[in-house]
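ugh ok so i messed up the first submission bc i forgot one of the chains. this is the corrected input, ALL of the components this time, i swear. 709 residues overall. if the numbers dont match what u have on ur side tell me asap before i send this to the collaborators (the ones from the other lab, u know who)
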Amino acid sequence: MNPVIRIENISKRYRIGTVHDRPDTLRDLLTTGAKRVGRLLKSGHDGRYEGPSYIWALKDISFEVERGQVLGIVGRNGAGKSTLLKILSRVTDPTLGYGEIHGRVGSLLEVGTGFHPELSGRENIYLNGAILGMHREEIDRKFDEIVEFSEVGKFIDTPVKRFSSGMYLRLAFAVAAHLEPEILVVDEVLAVGDAEFQLKCLGKMNDVAQEGRTVLFVSHNMSAILRLTQETIVLDQGKMIMRAPTPQAVDHYLNMGLNKQGERIWADNKSVDGEAPFVPVALRVLNPKGEVVDTVNATVGFSIELEYRLNQEISGLRVGIYMMTTRGEFVFTSFDTDDPEMFEKHTMRKPGHYISRCTIPPDLMNEGRYVLGVNASVYRIQRYFQDDKALIFTVDATGGPGMHWPEPRLGPVRPNLDWTIGKVDR
Amino acid sequence: MTDTTRPTNDTVPVIYLRPSTGWLGIDLKELWRYRELIFFLTWRDIKVRYKQAVLGVAWAVLQPILTVLIFTVIFGVLLGTPSEGLPYPLFAFSAMLPWQLFASALQRSSVSLVGNANLITKIYFPRLAIPLSTVFSALVDFGISLVVLLLVMIYYQHLPGLNSLWLVPIILLTLLTALAVGLWLSALNVQYRDVQHMVPFIIQVWMYASPIVYPIETIPAGIWRSLYGLNPMVGVIQGFRWALLGGNPPDVTMLISVVVVILLLVSGLYYFRRMEKTFADIV
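and heres the new structure output, hopefully the right one now
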């Protein structure tokens, strides 16, 4: 079967530099001289002129996507994901390379694009539909379905500026989700909205794929990537470093560039973060003797500590960790003020240097590699710091329950449970 | 949900991605496919413009009327400017109409690309749809003012004749003029925000360089008149006034205006298309 998307050596170069480097006002233009005028009028970017202040956002990306395939794209911020999607949806041109797309591309680059706050929900459905490339009769036909999906119901004739952000988002996604392009490009739409609606969106995307349409799905949500895609591309610094079945690609991505020494130290950006209320210093995995280690033994337990600095008094702060498998599944989340008594006692944290440490009890974790994430926030008020993959470490379960059978055990936990065996006489 | 009418592989459009080079031509077919988008953008502009104004659409009428009143007092009464034998308010109003159409279309289209940056950076559609729709949206105000002008004409017992059919091509010429200049300015404004500060000034100077408050005869005939005709709004206003009120018929200045508009439009389209591909990167 012919690929629906085929791109060859697509590269994109952006001009960077400070505002003063770019002739964004006429005065700058005049001062940089007429030579520049000639060059600019000749062409904004013609691939020939090489200046010092350029950056390749994408470099030599080539891949093919078959019809009906759901392809995941992962990478850190700045890896080039958005640029790639922009090129595929024709918002911007590649600087070099060639590509072929068979079919209309519908993009959910950011839901709600073109929504006008003054217009009513109904009016915005038509406007947004037209912007996304739907025809009027198509919108007429799907109107009721869109309204139903969005759950905004009787508010449909209210200006959307009076909508709650949830309603706004649901309506926007509903319009976009009812597009029927051959290729759907989805970027991070699931990062927002409540859990129930997220499920609905995932369901809708699944339907789209089931219908034999092609989906490109970019997300930081590894479990969504794992659930929805079979194959995934990993981008790093503008290059495609991997294309593999999703579990493998996600594992690779989560391991990428992670500190494997049992300790993660954040650079001391005093000059930059001097005023930030919360500044992370280090995250460490410790064995029972208090030594920083990469590998811990599950049978004796271990501890995890986060060292940080507060530059301001913060009220209601909670500092915690996420434990994740390298496949992106969460094992647990825990905060230092989970215990109501602790929360009462540490309601106010004065400026200063702190360490929050927790002990992982013996015989909790199964063997394997785990990713630690960090979160410092005040519930519902503010998130001061978050790093979903701050550190990776290894758990060794030697001596743990069932180790006399040398087989891998399913599941991230390996508890030592009390069993009784009784013979039952019938 | 299976849709049997979905196009098969034979009818699926193929999109090619490649670096943009030079002159791309105007894809009129594509523009036509996006006609509904142009319609909705126009409709949005109109709808939003008067949404929270207490007087609403009345502003479309008040603005030219107040301007004409001021002109009548200053130029008609105080300075005694000649007005081709027409009552001065009628003389000024008939020029004010195409001028307002031009000025508001120009003003809106020149900032249109920057104003719709969120669309441009997220979704593909022919970029021409944006300045086009702003130019169209200026037509609504114009239509309302035209009704007011007709009422003023009735008041002065000056009824339009058959010549008024010429209004159609003349209005078209006005829109094309606004579009031509708007294409240049909107594309330039994407990179040089100075443009949007210059536009009100450009419009003001341009207005006094057009026969709105004074008759074209004020300019000496011959070479000066021909130079004057390089301003395409000269031909437009002259033609508009003549079609509706009679008086001096358009002459060679009209022809010069048409040629200038065509030149501006072709070069504007060329520049716009050339810069179009970089809008999303630099806006």
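quick check: The two ends of chain A are 62 Å apart (CA to CA). that seems consistent at least. Chain A is about 25% helix and 35% strand.
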